[in-house]
Amino acid sequence: MKKTTTIWLSLFFIFLSRSVSAQSPFPAFLQGTWKVVDKDRYEHWDRISDSELKGVSYAIKNGQKIISEYLKIIKLGNKIVYSALVTGQNNGKEIDFELSYKDSTYSFSNLAHDFPKHIRYTRLEGDRLHISVEGKSGQGHAFDVYKVINESPGENPNYDGSLANKLGADDYGMKSYIFVLLKTGQNKTTDKQLINKSFKGHMENIDRLVKNGQLIVAGPFGKNDSNLRGLFILNNIATIEQAKAILQTDPAIENGLLEPLYYSWYGSAALAEYLPFSEKIWKKAH
């Protein structure tokens, strides 16, 4: 009996050790600024918490910082996800890559993405990293970076920490929003009573969402070939699923007269600051 118990305990600890080793370590070492060898290109990471890093990739040209990517690494349950938002690409959407770890290399992969499919960070000696960006069949590029000591990229002498915290700004003065395009819906009814009641409720719902701090931009488009009717920028809403639930309170959307298209959007956290002024410049109610 004792021998059997010992065997079971041994198997248990082997299983436990494998389970722990299978979990990739969080790459907290990335915190700080890294410079590409022989080039004025940088990657800077801030540690938001024990389970989240936010970063930015940029170049210095003529003394100006040119941002090319907004980055994030966050632990979600048993997964660690690297999100990249490349300026001017993917319709402003973040692309997610999941972490695996082996032999000092942190590999973030998304095999469904066209390029890249893998982003790899390999730790080298002396605060150096080898970074490779890979597609299929050897497509891609690689470079080495080193950690810049005592470097503070682009510190803002006018920074107001209390205002930044109030607005939910990150270190770059930015935050995530939900951008909604409204197009003509599938309901082609000619019932004027329903149409008028729905769009009256649509305007009332806009006012309610603004008062709740959930809507900071709304407005109609002019005539266009894409059947786009208007747009919303939703504030302090974490996910598209939450946005969908909130906009079901809009009668024009609920009745199919308007169809919303949802996108994650990254913009200035100061956007909402114009709202108090908007109340002072209208002369006639809508």
Commentary on this structure:
This protein has 286 residues and is α+β, with helices and mostly antiparallel strands. The chain has 2 domains: 28-148, Calycin beta-barrel core domain (Lipocalin, Beta Barrel), CATH 2.40.128; 161-278, Alpha-Beta Plaits. It has helices at 2-22, 161-167, 192-211, 240-247, 251-254, 275-278, and strands spanning 32-36, 41-49, 52-61, 64-76, 79-86, 95-102, 105-109, 118-124, 128-134, 140-148, 174-184, 215-220, 228-234, 258-268. The chain has a 10-stranded antiparallel beta barrel. A hairpin with a 2-residue loop joins strand 2 (41-49) and strand 3. The longest helix has 21 residues, at 2-22. The chain is elongated, with a radius of gyration of 25 Å. Mean pLDDT is 87; it is low at 8-21.
Key descriptive features of the protein:
286 residues, alpha+beta, Lipocalin, Alpha-Beta Plaits, four-stranded antiparallel β-sheet, 22% helix, 41% strand, elongated
Question: What's the gist of this structure?
Answer:
This protein is of the alpha+beta class and 286 residues long. The chain has helices spanning 2-22, 161-167, 192-211, 240-247, 251-254, 275-278, and strands at 32-36, 41-49, 52-61, 64-76, 79-86, 95-102, 105-109, 118-124, 128-134, 140-148, 174-184, 215-220, 228-234, 258-268. The protein folds into 2 domains: 28-148, Calycin beta-barrel core domain (Lipocalin), CATH 2.40.128; 161-278, Alpha-Beta Plaits, CATH 3.30.70.
